[in-house]
Target: Tryptophan aminotransferase-related protein 2
Amino acid sequence: MASFLSIFTMRNLFVLSLALNLSLIMRVFYEGEKHVPHGFSAQKADSGLEKEAHATQRTLVSLSSSGQDDGEKLIINLDHGDPTMYESYWQQMGEKTTVVIPGWQSMSYFSDVKNPCWFLEPEFAKQVVRLHNLVGNAVTEGRQIVVGTGSSQLFLAALYALAPKDASEPISVISAAPFYSSYPSMTDYLKSGLYKWAGDALSFDKEGPYIELVTSPNNPDGFVRHSMVNRTGGILVHDLAYYWPQYTPISSAADHDLTLFTVSKATGHAGTRIGWALVKDPEVAKKMIKFIELSTIGVSRDSQLRAARILEVMTNSSQNPGRLESGESFFKISYHLMAERWQLLREAVNRGRFFSLPDFQQGFCQFLNQVSQPQPAFAWLKCEDDGVEDCESLLRGHKILTRGGRSFGVGPKYVRVSMLDRDHNFNLFLKRLASIQT
Amino acid sequence: MASFLSIFTMRNLFVLSLALNLSLIMRVFYEGEKHVPHGFSAQKADSGLEKEAHATQRTLVSLSSSGQDDGEKLIINLDHGDPTMYESYWQQMGEKTTVVIPGWQSMSYFSDVKNPCWFLEPEFAKQVVRLHNLVGNAVTEGRQIVVGTGSSQLFLAALYALAPKDASEPISVISAAPFYSSYPSMTDYLKSGLYKWAGDALSFDKEGPYIELVTSPNNPDGFVRHSMVNRTGGILVHDLAYYWPQYTPISSAADHDLTLFTVSKATGHAGTRIGWALVKDPEVAKKMIKFIELSTIGVSRDSQLRAARILEVMTNSSQNPGRLESGESFFKISYHLMAERWQLLREAVNRGRFFSLPDFQQGFCQFLNQVSQPQPAFAWLKCEDDGVEDCESLLRGHKILTRGGRSFGVGPKYVRVSMLDRDHNFNLFLKRLASIQT
Model:
């Protein structure tokens, strides 16, 4: 046993140090490289991105010879909500969240044969409950937890579970504009006979049953939301991806029929592809589970184990008394980071009259035990200048990639800008925003 | 740095030893517990399973008091192809396949912004190519690799990519019976307007375009297959999940337009949910990538990293000269294990006239460099007894859960039986099979 352990330690350490080195090298490389982005859920934007990337490559020579700051050549991609801002927190936490998975572990399809959600890792479920209990943002009692390959898969699973199976026509799926840009395409890409995108909830006047998507705080604009239609036959799906203390005051524990959360916006681990749903009706949960069986035969067990570890550390870091004073608290550090970014952004915007930002009402956060500010993961920026019709194009001209208002069901004067990129890119963004206004 | 490493070593070792202990405890527990199974893609069977489980619980007292072997109370679940047989190989390989993932690694959505498949981990792609080059079972040159959350997701992605977007009716999807039992439900569960299950390829006589699924070796019966229809307008999808040396002779490198593989059947890591497609037409690949963007925004990076490590070790273990003599070769050991199981099964079946099994032709395996036997991952067992109409029910009466022929588009005289369960369950299965015939 001793010799086994010593071999293991050495090899393991070697692997680990390699991983550490590689990670650091990649980070340096990634920070330094030109961002020639590929897009998800933004096909329309893609061709623009590619043109932009090519254009940038063509102009590199002259820029280089003019001796300008390297940063000015970078295309900053704030189109996606890639939450790389959180990398530095997890680096500071060191090895606490490192997972070690031996080759023979978690090989079976089955995580828990006694759970209706047979592909749910018990440890992940446990950490989800612990986290909600700590933060107080959702009721977990009397709910079936359904794990998904990100909350996208759970959104589709919810549509499948809630749509009547033998209706004469597909059920209408609606959300108040501005709505999450992927809802229409995710709902309609398979031309399902079960459900169909029916647009803005505010102008929805069709009779009969419907599914309303309530995203709160809302993506893209960050406002707290409630159902807008409230008619007989309406079924609600609550997407609470951003209902965490760093983004919005936690006013009470959400207590809905079907609520979606995702690791990517909570902890920043987007590449892990793990989300979860809290589902009141066991029959609805059963159909969502069936959907995930049919589409991917369960959810990666490795990723659930990793997510469980990360949620565990996140909860541990924030559950000490006087957590706002704790130097390690994930939510404290993230809250202050977001506050700082929003302050800097508002300062940059307020330096001129070219742009505007939404105004939010502060509220009491039960978790932080203080009045806190909404400081969304996206900035919903409006071009106020009369001469600018298309804000996305304007910013693209300054090598800032954003997502234009049309994708969200409103006009092109608006753009959605990720607030979760790495420091370097966020600072460049501020600098360019300032330069546009001067 | 030294103190960091020493802390790391201790914590890391502690986690690792915990993981080892847990894994062993769970193994003992799992082997010993009553298998009250939950099913995927077998909803019909489930109610039966539940009844069976309840019935078993009711009979436990009398069985216990009669002093019979504990094994006889077990329900053996051979309904799914859960590849737990491979656990022992990976245990023997020790720490070689252990992955260590620090908390700040792979956080971004993006694996490789320069690849059209932006969520494909370069290391995973590299190991896929290496493995195919070694085994010689598929041409990778001139192919886009598309990674998926298991090959199920890639199957759906392929239907989406290949179906015409503006056709007046959905394209027909067919496969020759007996076909993989999940094809009909996976094709039809969303009532897509793009594609529609049209049943057995052998009786398909509709005019116009169609997609034919060619599974080779076939699930459930293990035979090598080619396209059955071969008409104008036909598009082929090759599911080669079982085209590996342990299951069938590798006669040549597959060179099709769109080929699917999955880690679960190649290495046994079903819980990792990773599959890959080799796609000739970049436009088709692009649409498959779009499908995966819309359904799950990419594929878990953690799982890809783990799969890459496992494929790497598998390739390394089998690439030494004289590989059939190597004590570590994955393919050698798995080939002999399957050969042994098939020999034992045939002996058990041949002891009576109650059951029969398919007869296969041997062939020359380019990889093993010898004549080898087909020895499929499933046994396609037929009840020859005139008094038995429903083979699945008969076996269920003996606490053996299998999947009946009707799920595969043929009659109930047939059942599909997993050959990939753990030794203990496989041996119990043989014992019960023998007892039915006496």
